[in-house]
Automatic annotation (TrEMBL):
Listed PANTHER family: METAL TRANSPORT SYSTEM ATP-BINDING PROTEIN TM_0124-RELATED, ZINC IMPORT ATP-BINDING PROTEIN ZNUC
Species, as recorded: Amphritea atlantica
Residue ranges, annotated region (Disordered): 239-262
Phylogenetic classification of the source organism: Bacteria, Pseudomonadati, Pseudomonadota, Gammaproteobacteria, Oceanospirillales
Residues annotated as domain ABC transporter: 7-222
Name used for this protein in its record: Zinc ABC transporter ATP-binding protein ZnuC
Gene coding for it: znuC
Keywords annotated in UniProt: ATP-binding, Cell membrane, Ion transport, Membrane, Nucleotide-binding, Translocase, Transport, Zinc, Zinc transport
Composition-biased stretches (Basic and acidic residues): 253-262
Amino acid sequence: MSPANLVEITALNISFGSNSVIDNVSMTLKPGEITTLIGPNGAGKTTLVKAVLGLLSPTSGTIRRASTLRIGYMPQKLHIDTTFPLTVERFLKTAAFASIEDRCLALQAVRAEHLLKQSVHSLSGGEMQRVLLARALLRKPELLVLDEPAQGVDINGQTELYRLIASIRDKYNCAVLMISHDLHLVMAATDQVICLNHHICCSGHPEQVSADPSYIELFGIPGAENLALYSHHHNHQHNNHGDILPLSEETENDHSHCGGHH
Ligand SMILES: Nc1ncnc2c1ncn2[C@@H]1O[C@H](COP(=O)(O)OP(=O)(O)OP(=O)(O)O)[C@@H](O)[C@H]1O
């Protein structure tokens, strides 16, 4: 396995009985790279994520993980009994062995330190997702796996959440693998898009995928137009002081670069 990769998936097949859900999928996850899985309902996105997490075994093919890989997982939704009194602080304590400092740092990273003493039952959709994200960060993950992180979050909150995910990637240099249906919102904050419909229909940088005929066939032209509208052209980068710098030829051609551009 290449030391540059955190996860290497080769010719993966997963079937449930005669139902072939994952068909010959190969992909890699690298530190500092955000990979977004898109695809229609039932395409196998959750199945693929479960396989990456080690919760499902391949029918054939291989999944190699870097030894001692630490994974932080943010579930789509967490059902907490509303009769059970639970503050954010207690909720984070139940999740992983972590010091008070770690819990505060994780909450700071998601800009939710003010919620520490609040009941989890009183949080808004966006606040709850940020607390779930903080919980995933407690493991100091090298790979962060997010299953539809913006579920139940209003449109402004969604944009902010995806920005937050990109800033967490920058800060921790972790890989991010996420499932998303918010195609137009996610495009600006992703390095690699994998369009899955059991097999990989197309993959690559957001701009490439949104122009791919198999993507347009799956999601239609309006979807593609939206993406073109929202897709982010990296025509500059920033130094550590926030000054705008022209792109070097190398970075201009490499949209998966994860340095100071936005
Ligand atoms: N444990 C299982 N046993 C049998 N079939 C399963 C199992 N898990 C998933 N499937 C089937 O595999 C297919 C893909 O499911 P999966 O949840 O991976 O899709 P998805 O792309 O995440 O869909 P959605 O966008 O609707 O969440 C579905 O037809 C589902 O019924």
